[in-house]
From TrEMBL:
Residues 59-100 form a coiled coil. It comes from Labeo rohita. The keyword Coiled coil applies. The lineage of its organism: Eukaryota, Metazoa, Chordata, Craniata, Vertebrata. Residues 1-22 form the signal peptide. This is Uncharacterized protein. Keywords: Coiled coil, Signal. It comes from the Eukaryota.
Amino acid sequence: MRVTIAVLLLLYKCLIFAPNAATEPVSSELSTKDDNFLQNNIKELTSALQIFTDLLQELGAAKKKLQATETRLNALETSQQKLMSRLANSEAQIEKVKMENKGRAKHFVVRNFYVDDGLTSVSTSEEAIALFRNTQKMLAESNLRLHKIPSNSKTVMKAFPKKDHAEDLKDLDLGVDSLPVQHSLGLTWNLETDSFNFHVHQEEKPFMRMGVLSTVNSLYDPLGFLAPVVV
């Protein structure tokens, strides 16, 4: 705007002070004064036009830089949107995993606990560790402590502090000592062989219906392992 005004002012100056062609007679030779006046105006116009041209070039260069900057900003905005989308997806996945873990812990407590004792089996040591830890966190929200943990896997036992181990496992050297037999839900659990053992008290009873029922009912089998045999 500044250069345009300057050019217009110079043009206006030329029109004001130039010889009046309509009122003065045409002369074959311009006076020295008029010639100098026109030459000076031409120089001023040329200088102003040069400044205007330079500014246009600078504006063109600035426009290219601005376009490049806008392109980079658009690229950054796109990258930011992608990152925000990935972050949102990651947070959703984390929340989903938390809900799944809490769901497994809840299922363990609801379906695999008898009063305050729990017993379950999973495929890997990692699953067992995750299940115990998630259950501990869930129960801790209600000020309940899950401890006295026995397992047939020494990897699982090593993942928890000794204060959380079963009483007869706290003083063991898990790298050397063998795991002792545990009693879980009234059953004898051999940790080394991962098997349940049933001890039958042999008593002489009459071979009658009442005697057979008494012998069968004396077997404590809450999980129904012996059902195919005793039914």
